[in-house]
Specification:
With 348 residues, the chain is α/β, with parallel strands linked by helices. The chain contains 13 helices and 12 strands. The protein is 45% helix and 16% strand. Bound molecules: nicotinamide-adenine-dinucleotide (NAD) and thymidine-5'-diphosphate.
């Protein structure tokens, strides 16, 4: 079996669901269930014995050790993290606690347990760390896309905490020989994403007739990848990636934020003609230290492992909007008091 951390979050939950659609191997899912964790995203797995959910912290060494000894996973896939840049600006401490100290504790537990296993099991074991393109910093309009050799230059507390965790993973391979893999992926979107990130926030606000807050001039650029394609990339790297390597994962879909918002508006209106989103677009104060542009050069994962995304931005976004329109109960459940407080703090 495999141990997945953060498997009740956006990408982790999609990964677990996709995993069971493609593989037979059981999953132990360790998740702290922070505001971003949601067992409702995994409700279709109720009663499925292949899925063992454990509520807990990756920083809890005793718990992690117990899980490793009990389940003897052949791999750990680490999604658990604090993941929202704006929250890292308001409260960076949680990002250091989980992304730096928590990842360190997880790595060290895994290393200690792994080092006691028979040689053949040590050789096939993998620790796959899921990271972000934000560790590379910000690009100018004409700069080449981030490759695996681009120097790290993180700009937000979130990006710095992820960069720190990536360095620890690298060091654990280099020093102890732990068979690690790291993926650095661009912005994901898709079903089950918490509506604090750009795309689900715009869908939720559009449906509620609320303003669509666009930071600054709306010309910041991100590369967008459908979450199902990120999951297939992680499965590919886990199965075939070269130990100790990092792989950049991207969607070949650079878009300015304002264009993303307008595309969301158009697709929502095609399905809900009465929702006049365009008039809701509102330019608001910019994010402090807002990175201007991210772009991913995914040549390595394509050439070495044959991975390419199956969705274009337009097909992925259409599927995403359908999902949100069809899953009103999920959406209502995440817009609780804590969520409303966050929106008030961030957009007041
Ligand atoms: P998310 O915020 O939706 O989910 C994170 C999950 O981790 C939640 O279920 C939460 O409960 C859990 N968690 C948080 N702290 C924990 C702890 N200490 N112990 C155990 N569980 C804990 O995040 P996401 O968007 O699904 O991102 C998953 C991973 O992918 C993160 O590591 C993130 O840095 C990375 N990533 C995200 C994106 C993106 O666009 N969302 C892009 C590239 C990489
Ligand atoms: P986000 O989804 O928070 O991802 P990240 O900061 O990790 O790239 O934001 C994507 C882009 O959208 C980013 O340039 C910030 C911008 N943005 C807005 O313009 N308005 C918003 O309300 C949010 C949440 C983000």
């Amino acid at each position: 079996m495999i141990l997945v951390t953060g498997g009740a979050g956006f990408i982790g939950a999609n990964f677990v669901l996709d995993w069971f659609a493609c593989e037979h191997e059981p999953v132990v899912n360790l998740d702290k269930l922070t505001y971003a964790g949601n067992l409702g995203s995994l409700s279709s797995l109720a009663g499925d014995e292949r899925h063992v959910f454990v509520r807990g912290d990756i920083g809890d060494a005793d718990l992690v050790r117990t899980l490793l000894e009990r389940h003897r996973p052949r791999a750990v896939v680490n999604f658990a993290a604090e993941s929202h840049v704006d929250r890292s600006i308001h409260g960076p401490a949680a990002f250091i606690d989980t992304n730096v100290v928590g990842t360190f504790a997880l790595l060290d537990c895994v290393r200690a347990w792994w080092s006691e296993q028979p040689a053949d099991e040590r050789a096939t074991f993998r620790f796959l760390h899921v990271s972000t393109d934000e560790v590379y910093g910000s690009l100018g309009p004409d700069d080449s896309a981030f490759s695996e050799t681009t120097p790290y230059a993180p700009n937000s507390p979130y990006a710095a905490s992820k960069a720190s965790s990536d360095h620890l993973v690298r060091a654990y391979h280099h020093t102890y020989g732990l068979p690690t893999l790291t993926t650095n992926c661009s912005n994901n979107y898709g079903p089950r994403q918490f509506p604090e990130k750009l795309i689900p926030l715009m869908i939720v606000n559009a449906l509620a007739g609320k303003p669509l807050p666009v930071y600054g001039d709306g010309r910041n650029v991100r590369d967008w990848l459908y979450v199902g394609d990120h999951c297939s990339a992680i499965r590919t790297v886990l199965a075939h990636g070269r130990v100790g390597e990092t792989y950049n994962v991207g969607g070949n879909a650079e878009r300015a934020n304002i264009d993303v918002v307008r595309t969301v508006c158009r697709l929502v209106r095609e399905r809900r003609p009465h929702v006049d989103c365009e008039r809701l677009v509102t330019f608001v104060r910019d994010r402090p230290g807002h990175d201007r542009r991210y772009a991913i050069d995914a040549t390595k994962i394509r050439r070495e492992l044959g991975w390419t995304p199956a969705h274009t931005f337009e097909t992925g976004l259409a599927r995403t909007i359908e999902w949100y329109l069809d899953n009103g109960a999920w959406l209502a459940s995440v817009q609780n008091a804590e969520y409303r407080q966050w929106v008030e703090l961030q957009y007041a």
